[in-house]
Amino acid sequence: MSAQTTRKYSNEFMNIGVDAAALGMSNAVVAHSNDVNSGYWNPAGLVNLEDSQMALMHSSYFANIANYNYAAFAMPLDDRSAVGLSLIRFGVDDILDTTQLIDEQGNVNYDRINLFSAVDYGLTFSYSRRLPVPGWNYGVNAKVIRRIIGDFASSWGFGLDVGIQFESDNNWKFGLMARDITTTFNAWAIDEGKLATIQDAIEGQNQETPEGTELTLPKLQLGVSKFYEFHYDYTLRAEFDLIVRFEENNDIISTSFASFNPALGFEFGYTDLVFLRAGLGNFQNELQIDNNEKLTFQPNFGLGFKYNGIQIDYAFTDIGDQSAALYSNVFSVKLDFSIFR
Questions:
Q1: Res 320 pLDDT > 60
Q2: Which of 5, 37, 146, 292 fits a disulfide with 19 by CB distance 3.0 to 4.6 angstroms?
Q3: 3-state SS string over the chain?
Q4: Could you report the per-residue pLDDT of 287-309, keeping only the tens digit for each?
């Protein structure tokens, strides 16, 4: 099969986000991200690592039907470069396969029900380096995508991301993350035999063979961040990001060429030990039942605690139910290997 299509929502599991600290700030982090999670948010930030770090995260969606897990490791190579590796798994397990529920004689046989999983994997290799110009860093991601739908279909995909960060002398930071700059593709392999068994299951509603290749359009995220310090013990970090998709959708600003969605995040810290976070994002023009449009948004809230190289973060998304997105409790942990020295 040589057909291919460009989809608005291809490989969307790679856009959910990682790290409860970032999710608590509504993903407004591309300008100031500077730890192991930068491999996802902006690989340019990895160069700020002083020691090796690892991170883990788990969250559940759709009443615990789908599980989202993330693990990452990063380390500096020298004072000018760093590398990272991260893995994302988004899966729905133990799905009932009822395609063989009715046997050849038309009898219902529950012993013919099997279980399968629909699982998406994203493996990312990251590299970051300081530019000769003071304050400027860049980073690149090479992504391998593996998607599996039981024995029915599977795909491999590949893509590249590029990130840039700049830090001024007065605590202003700027960031740009360009995702899927090569239009990440997925090449699907369909089990023709299994497809044939369900194509005529309902007369007049045959299942057509899906396209063999799907493309993921590029996305941009631009951010500006400012860090404030009060009386040495209190800090405030604020960031404003603008997410750009080259498609027309329900974002707050949308044209036939591109759509734009803002995100605003805040992090209040005390003695670099306790953190309180909040953010607003996912602004959408949602069509109501009376055909009128209503502006909705997704508020987020988060807490963090850091001590002796160990950081534990929690995020509660969509508080107040201002958008159609379901809320989720997200936990993550980050470990700095300096505690072993």
A1: no
A2: 37
A3: CCCEEEECCCCHHHHCCCCHHHHHCCCCCCCCCCCCCHHHHCHHHHHHCCCCEEEEEEEEECCCCEEEEEEEEEEEEECCEEEEEEEEEEEEEEEEECCCCECCCCCECHHHCEEEEEEEEEEEEEEEEECCCCCEEEEEEEEEEEEEECCCEEEEEEEEEEEEEEECCCCEEEEEEEECCCCCEEEEEECHHHHHHHHCCCCCCCCCCCCCEEEECCEEEEEEEEEEEECCCEEEEEEEEEEEECCCCCECEECCCCEEEEEEEEEEEECCCEEEEEEEEEEEEEECCCCCEEEEEEEEEEEEEEECCEEEEEEEECCCCCCCCCCCEEEEEEEEHHHHC
A4: 777 778 788 888 999 999 999 99
